[in-house]
Protein 1
Amino acid sequence: MLDWFLLDFGRLASAAPKSRGDKDYAQRVKRHAMSSTLPILLSALAMTLIVGFRYLLTSGLFAWATERKYPGLYAKLRPQIGREIYWSLLSAAIYGIPAGIVAWGWNERGWTLVYTNISDYPLWWWPVSVFLALFAHDTWFYWTHRWMHRPKPFKIAHAVHHASRPPTAWAAMSFHPWEAITGAVVIPALVFLIPMHISALALLLTIMTVMGITNHMGWEMFPRWMVNGPLGNVLITATHHQRHHDEYRGNYGLYFRFWDRLCGTDLGLGRFAHDRTESDNSQLA
Ligand SMILES: [Zn+2]
Ligand SMILES: [Zn+2]
């Protein structure tokens, strides 16, 4: 894992002054730094564009699905959606920078524990690595999120996310830059800690993207039997996160209800405004 570091150190050492007054030394160090700066910048820029387009495509897809399932659900939220897109695209740039740097390092210097040959680790490791990464992400999210609900950090960082009332499919990355930084470092850090096959990493990113959007889109896409059954007792879906946006004081988790339950902050499942109207109507009928 330290290969990349030793490689860099070795390159720098070979550029060391050969004698006193070696005028080329400064030039060699400068060249060494310059040779990797531009590719790193380009990689960060490319990743920013990828994250931005991924956001527009996936949030757009779920916003379209929302319009088909509940026509007019977002009708009065147009100004809010504009702000959600603004903050989300700003977050895309913040997410793209560390991801771009690590992607460059993976490609050029062999950084990270990401592997491409499936037989490098036993097959059982594949699902375990996905679960461990989800659990680690969930743990980081729970504690930083809970901390951001303290008055000062809330005002500085987290109020932007809660300005969406109710949130929409466009709110998936609607964070203030300070909050975006806490989210942007997670995956680039995890790939140095947990060995993951490239396809396991792709699944992790897909789950992260889809759950980030669907938890905010204002309706439940999973069947009721699942949400109200044993799976819903453990996993977080839109019905659970909706209640966080309604009541603030609990349901801080991201994928699992584990930390909320352990720390007594689980508020249980929420209800959507359209579900309330539907059940009220059926009671009247
Ligand atoms: Zn919150
Ligand atoms: Zn939220």
Note: The pocket of zinc ion (ligand 1) is lined by residues 145, 149, 158, 162, 244 (CB under 6 Å).
Protein 2
Amino acid sequence: MENQVKRLSTILCRARDGLAIIAVAVAVAAPVPLHAEATPPVPLAILKQRYHRPDAVPFPPNNPFSAAKADLGLSLFFDPRLSGPATMSCGTCHNPSMAWKDGLAVGVGSDAKPLARATPPIMNLAWGELMMWDGRKDSLEDQATGPMIAAAEMNATLPEIMSRLSRMPLYRDKFQSAFGDEKITPERVSAAIATFERTVVSGKAPFDHWIDGDEAAIGDAAKRGFVLFNGPANCAACHSGWRFTDDGFHDIGLASTDPGRGAQLPGVASLMHAFKTPTLRNIDQRAPYMHDGSVKTLAAVMRHYATGFLQRPSLSAEMHRLALSNQDVTDLVAFMHTLTSQDPAIKLPTLPTTEEEG
Ligand code: HEC
Ligand code: HEC
């Protein structure tokens, strides 16, 4: 029910975009002039309050946190036996050494063939709403078995995976600790993986220390970038809140012909080519950028927003040509660099190795 409401509000919100776009299409405005010393649209102190980090990670009532479940989820996430050929785990693509992504333009499946879209990071998703670039999954639980059984990704079957796991005494123990008995089911596998994923939270970055009052935590260029981001460059219209995403779907005018969320909700014109707003946390660790990996650097992303996007009926009404000076680009990029945290290395699990006879 809650998800239906979310989905509906996304549709309504995008439908408004659809109306506003008519005006934009008629008068493709001259680039909005920017100034590095632009004043913030609202007092800086109030603006900063919008970016405070939450104190605790939320877990849903139907899958509450337990240390045993998170520990099991960690093992499953990094276990290649969840793929048909037993060569690829979730962590192969969502690699913690690469900011939970893979450094590639698009993911590569277990048969070494490229997928249609880039691997998104599985970070700060405890606060996420709809999952995937096109929002086709309702929750982390709903998402988890998808890649296992997708032929182009891990190419396994659920009975095959359940029987592999059931043959390992250590897994039976882990399911016992997490769920009270040894039964191994796809629902339990999903619940454990989702619990682990919710524990993956990016740590405090220099930006957060600045928000908390340490003026020396970030430089002047980044401070000017923050003002641009929230003011004339209009980035915060979509990259809002401490995760820098509104969890909405927008067409930002990339050349890709992928229909994105439009394929999920055909008939809503403004959702054509609309993709989920990515988080900007640790963004400088995750090149190349966009759902198709088509943009190689943050400066190139800025050039896209300035003048590089396509005008088409589905383009978000929040997209305006921007007269970004070189200094503005430097400042916005400097600001984005301050969103990167130095997180402690994740301790990889020791995976079960012994199988029973027969
Ligand atoms: C072959 C590479 C690959 C493997 C293996 C893989 N993923 Fe992904 N993952 C992707 C890609 C690509 C997407 C985006 C697909 C799309 O949106 O259409 C994605 C999306 C996701 C998302 C949605 C993130 C968001 O922000 O919406 C989650 C969560 C996720 N994967 C978890 C997992 C889990 C759990 C596993 C293991 C069971 C896994 N992935 C295995 C490549 C991979
Ligand atoms: C209309 C909403 C919207 C606005 C305005 C907007 N963005 Fe985005 N941004 C998105 C969406 C949606 C994507 C992903 C698009 C895709 O892959 O198709 C994205 C992608 C990005 C990426 C790449 C992220 C990644 O993980 O690949 C960066 C960086 C970025 N935006 C920064 C900015 C900055 C800086 C501004 C202001 C100059 C801005 N955005 C304005 C919605 C928006």
Note: The radius of gyration is 22 Å.
Protein 3
Amino acid sequence: MASVTGAVSCRLFPSASRARISISSPSSSSSLSPLSLSSSFSYFFSPLKCLPTSPFVPHFFLIQKASWMSTVAVASDPSQLKSAREDIKELLKTKFAHPILVRLGWHDAGTYNKNIEEWPKRGGANGSLRFEVELKHGANAGLVNALNLLQPIKDKYSGVTYADLFQLASATAIEEVGGPKISMKYGRVDVSAPEECPEEGRLPSAGPPKPAEHLREIFYRMGLNDQEIVALSGAHTLGRSRPDRSGWGKPETKYTKSGPGAPGGQSWTIEWLKFDNSYFKDIKERKDEDLLVLPTDAVLFEDPSFKVYAEKYAEDQEAFFKDYAEAHAKLSNLGAKFDPPQGIVLDGVTGEKFVAASYSSGKD
Ligand code: HEM
């Protein structure tokens, strides 16, 4: 059955360079996969012709509508996503911004509230973090630097949404420093105005009175479980904390005083630009005063349920990588609205375990 999602998407993405109309055979139209998008016959039309006021829009789709056709408009363009990924890799080679890009992606997605159905009120990976009002939230201190690094890439690829770019940058950064391959999908729709940003206070604090309770309250609200909390905390194998941003950490240590990248801050691990399981080993041992352990890191070895996973990941890097990759893919999709609803896969089949539809109905 053909759909008219293209018209809706054009209204949502006036900045998109083009919408893609795919025409599939009758047999493939009911099970259109992200991959079949690129293999099916497709052509493009100018976004100027699909402004909300244009009478051309409904006509265009009505004329095209037939039982053997499927019209699908995408939020991001697959070829532009791939080019943007190469640009991100180049950027990382000179800026060593891997950690802050991971933090950017996580803070865009981590505002998700599973108890709110409506998009974008539910928060999540929707690009809202580009707006000043959200960048100014205390938890986001310093992330304006990450946005500034990515902005030229965004300017270059109008067919890539902010929401996708943030998640693309994060997954690429992890892979580039030795982390697991993450089964990502793209096509996230951007919010369009600062009024659509979530209220402050949805992200975790590093020093709450009861860290385990706090982590559960925040991450359960996102629909994540204990194992995912521990696995995702392992992202602190990368990067540093800076007192002038979050208020946590030392101004500099022997591991950070000469960079790479902007010097200073306190890292959780010695090689803080290498993705491995040393975070779990180091917070378990706590031997080195130059390495950071936040109250919310320490609790991973104190709470009986968290401890099972923390111990496992300290012993077994492969288990950590596997669980991290799955949890990261899930995090990156939280609250996102995908266009097309099944998302766009760049490199093959997505190995994500959870059902995307429970996070993205594609209806609103
Ligand atoms: C579990 C609750 C979490 C808390 C309380 C927390 C807290 C923090 C704090 C205080 C900083 C230092 C920021 C600064 O001063 O610049 C930080 C940095 C960082 N966080 Fe988390 N975080 C949490 C979870 C996560 C998760 C789930 C991820 C990713 C999946 C993540 C990724 C990072 C990264 C990569 C950095 C380093 C950023 C840089 O070097 O610029 N964090 N986090």
Note: Residues 78-95 form the longest helix (18 residues).
